[in-house]
Structure formats: C-alpha cells, structure tokens
Design goal:
Layout (H helix, E strand, L loop, with lengths): L2 H4 L6 H25 L3 E8 L5 H11 L5 E5 L14 H5 L7 E5 L4 H7 L6 H20 L2 E9 L2 H12 L10 H5 L4 H15 L6 E5 L3 H17 L34 H19 L8 E8 L5 H9 L7 E5 L5 H4 L5 H4 L8 E5 L8 H4 L5 H20 L2 E9 L2 H13 L9 H7 L2 H15 L6 E5 L3 H19 L1
Parallel strand pairs: 1-3, 1-4, 2-3, 4-5, 6-8, 6-9, 7-8, 9-10
Helix pairs in contact: 2-10, 5-6, 5-9, 11-20, 12-20
Protein name: Polyphosphate kinase
Keywords: Kinase, Transferase
GO molecular function, one term: polyphosphate:AMP phosphotransferase activity
Length: 488
C-alpha cells in the first residue's frame, strides 16, 4: 500500500513544468464546470504522516484553483460548545454547498488514526470507529457530497531529512511542528496505523489515494491529479446495500388504529394537573444535573392535531432563554444545496438547552414519500440514517423524545371548519391541508411504517390520542417530565 510512496519517487523540474500548466488549467475548468452544474460538492480529506507537506500542498491547490469557492476546514481537539454535541456535529455544520469544495484538516479520522497507531490498539474501538465513519461517508455520498481522501506518505528517512531542511532556514522553520519532530521515533507505529485505517475505510464512494510526498513536485502533481479525477467523476457512486434500511423485513403494525380516541380529561382536572406538571418540568429543566444534558423534542402529527398548543404548554414552564423552537417547512435553497439532515444538525442544542421541532427530519419519510418528491430509494435509506442521527444525539448527552399527536378524520374536518370561520385561526388553514386529507390512508401507512422502523429505546415514539386537546397536552407533559426525572 505504501511501497511506492516510501520509495520516495522524484519528478524533475523539466517534467513538472509542462505538467503543472496542464493541471492548473484543467483544475480551473473542472472547478467552474462543477460550479455551473451545482449538483454535488467535493470534500477533500487530508491525512497522513506529519511533516509530509500536507499544508504546503493545500496552499498550492488554493493557488491553482479559484480560492473563492474553496473552504479550508481545519479542526483541532474538540472544545467549548463542540463538547456538548456529537463529534460529527462540527463537520455537518461546515459542509460546503453543492458546486463548492471543502478541504478538511483534522477530520473525523483523527480518533481512528490515534487509536490505530497506539502500541496496543483496541481492535473493538477500531471496528466501531471505522463503522461509524463508513456510515457517515455513505450518507454524505448518497446526498451528493463527493469524498476523496488523500494520505500523504514518505519514507522515515525522507521525513526526517525534510524536517531538518526546513529547520535550517528561518524562513521555513515555522513549517515544522513539535509533532513533526517526534514522527521519526514512532514512524513504524504510525505507518502500521495508516495501513489499518486505509484497509478499514477505503471504498468506492469515498476512496483513499496515497500521495508520494518526499519530492515537492511529485507531491503537487499527484495531489492535483487525484483532485482533478474526482472533479471529473460523473454521477453519484453506488452505496453498498449494508447502509440501506431494507423494507419488508419487519411487520408493520397499525399503531394509529390501536389508539383510544375517546380519551378525555375534564377542565377542572386539566387545570390542576397542568400546573403540577409544568412545575415539575420547570424544576427539572433548571436543575444542576440538566446542565450536563440536553433535550430534543420532536412533534409530528396530522394537520390540526394540536402540535402548536402542546408546544406552548411545554414552553410555558421554561425560561425563554433556554429553548429554541424550529418550525419545519419546505427546505430553502441554502438547505437544498446540502444533505437532507444538515439543517437539523445545525439546530441541535448545547447542554442545558432544549430544542423543540414543530415537524422534523421525519418529513423525508412522510410528505416527501407520500407526495413522491423523492425517489423511493432515498426515503427507504432514511430510516437507517435517522436512527443513526438520533443515536449520536443520545450518545452526546441528549434526551430525545418524539411525539405523534393523532386525531381522527372527523375531528380534523371539524377543526378545519372551525379554523376557516375564526379570524384568529384562518391563517392556519391552507389548500395543502385540504389536499392532504385526500391522502389520509397513504399518510397513515407511512406513519405506521416510520413508527415501526424508528421507535427505539434510546429515542422512543409516544403516540398521543389528540381528539381531546386537554388530554393530549397533559400526556405530552407527563412523558417529558417522567423522562427527565428518570434521567436526571
């Protein structure tokens, strides 16, 4: 794997000069063509031996291409608000839009490389970390993010010689870090770790390319050739079936049909219990223990099921500085230029805070599925992607609760007519609401399937009969309070 790179091949100046001219022109043309099409973005992941000239090569790429459409994304150890969220949050947050290019230093590979390069690496950790990376990259690739991973490599002798050469001049000494100087002593371990990383994570939709790096010209030419080949690649690569949630393997249960839609609460009992539950919620949200956790509340349901009213009863108990409500509508042009889950990753809360989603990422397997806005392969794949997303939230300290507020067709019709008559509510009723009623069965089928495939212990669904609004609001509050008190 590293044999050619460790032979330290050289490209003479006479050979490099005409090649450089061709590569520069070709890279610019390919870059502008991608900008024109704007159908996918490119992520160039930079890794490899420290002291192999990675930074200098990336600087050269910015010179050869139009730097206005390249984002260099450099990451160190997680700190501050990054520690309150899943490790992949910062990479999701910074994803470039379609047509653009991102160059990533300190990528999601850093923990895997560190583990694989230890004296006694933990095989289970390596397998788990590699599997998580593969899921992440498969999801990005399927959503139009092209990934190419460059491993810069050279022999131990060449690495040492390069560091000494740079240190000899005050003008270049700054390029040598303390880490670069220690590499030679640990070269064999780093090399072995690199083998493990590349063997575990090289795949068609996110390939590794080893860049011989002892010679500056060779390094520049090979990097440019790899990037150019990626930019010229057409279409979206095939994603292995292992990353797709297969439909038909699980029996879909009609959970909506099993609800008791006659459940009610009288006004007096409602008022007294509402105050008690809101008081318990206020105490839990203000507790010291909650400062080490976060809360994610997802509200879904049929049109006019009372999501807004239930949310207001929750927020009445909270400090307005502590929560954010995100109403989800059709994605904007900025959101369409990135993977589907991008806009939701950006809204996940820090510890001590609460994120409330009035509709959510489940739109992909509901409205987008039923209205045929996307191909079936996309929404079928989304169950696994959603479960993975929520699992990462929980692993980072979030409490994830999902509510489906359910009403009957007759109750919905009554509420629609009430909204049309009320000057305070008629803004809530739209032609789409009436049109969606005609697809009640299709939406019910999609709902029952998402409940079956995404109701998991770490992020459970709570089905709430909402024909009686008071009953539904108390049920929502009760589930939140009990979950928080149990966890804190």
């Amino acid at each position: 794997m590293f044999a050619e790179a460790e032979a330290d091949p050289i490209l003479s100046k006479d050979e490099f000069k005409p090649l450089e001219e061709r590569l520069r022109a070709a890279l610019l043309n390919a870059q502008y063509e991608r900008l024109r099409k704007a159908d996918k973005s490119l992520l160039i992941v930079v890794a490899g031996i420290d002291g192999a000239g990675k930074g200098a090569t990336v600087n050269l790429l910015n010179e050869w291409m139009d730097p206005r459409h390249i984002r260099t994304l450099a990451y160190g150890p997680r700190e501050g608000e990054e520690l309150d969220r899943p490790p992949l949050w910062r990479y999701w947050r910074d994803l470039p839009p379609k047509g653009s290019t991102g160059i990533v230093f300190g990528s999601w590979y850093a923990p895997l490389i560190i583990e694989a390069s230890r004296k006694k690496p933990n095989a289970e950790k390596i397998e788990a970390q590699a599997a998580a990376i593969m899921r992440f990259e498969a999801m990005l690739a399927a959503e139009g993010v092209q990934i190419i991973k460059l491993w810069f490599h050279l022999s131990a002798k060449a690495q040492k010689t390069r560091a000494q050469h740079l240190l000899a001049s005050p003008e270049t000494a700054w390029q040598v870090s303390p880490v670069d100087l220690k590499v030679n002593k640990r070269f064999d371990r780093i090399r072995a770790g690199g083998h493990v990383v590349l063997n575990h994570t090289d795949c068609g939709h996110a390939p590794w390319v080893v860049i011989p790096s002892a010679d500056e010209n060779m390094r520049a030419a090979r990097t440019a050739e790899a990037v150019l080949a990626a930019m010229r690649q057409r279409g979206i690569p095939r994603i292995p079936p292992a990353f797709v949630a297969h439909s038909g393997s699980t029996r879909i249960v009609d959970r909506l049909g099993q609800l008791d839609y006659e459940a009610k609460v009288d006004k007096q009992d409602y008022e007294s219990e509402l105050g008690l539950l809101q008081g318990r919620l206020a105490r839990a949200a203000r507790s010291d223990k909650f400062q080490q956790r976060s809360l994610v509340l997802v509200f879904e349901g049929q049109d006019a099921a009372g999501k807004g009213g239930a949310i207001r009863r929750v927020t009445h108990a909270l400090d307005a500085r502590q929560f954010d409500i995100t109403p989800i509508a059709a994605p904007s042009s900025e959101e369409l230029a990135r993977p589907y889950l991008w806009r939701f990753w950006r809204r996940i809360p820090r510890h001590g805070r609460i994120a409330i989603f009035d509709r959510s990422w489940y739109g992909r397997v509901l409205v987008e599925r039923v209205e045929k806005l996307i191909a079936p392969a996309k929404w079928r794949r989304s169950y696994a992607e959603i479960n993975d997303f929520e699992e990462q939230l929980v692993a980072s300290g979030a409490l994830v609760l999902k509510f489906w507020l359910a009403i009957t067709p007759d109750e919905q019709l009554e509420r629609f007519r009430e909204r049309e008559k009320s000057p305070f509510k008629n803004f809530k009723i739209t032609p789409d609401d009436w049109r969606n009623r005609d697809k009640w069965r299709e939406y019910a089928a999609a709902t029952n399937e998402l409940l079956t495939r995404t109701d998991v212990p770490h992020a459970p669904w709570h089905l709430v009969s909402a024909n009686d609004k008071r009953y539904a609001r108390l049920q929502v509050l009760r589930h939140i309070v009990e979950a928080m008190e149990d966890q804190l």
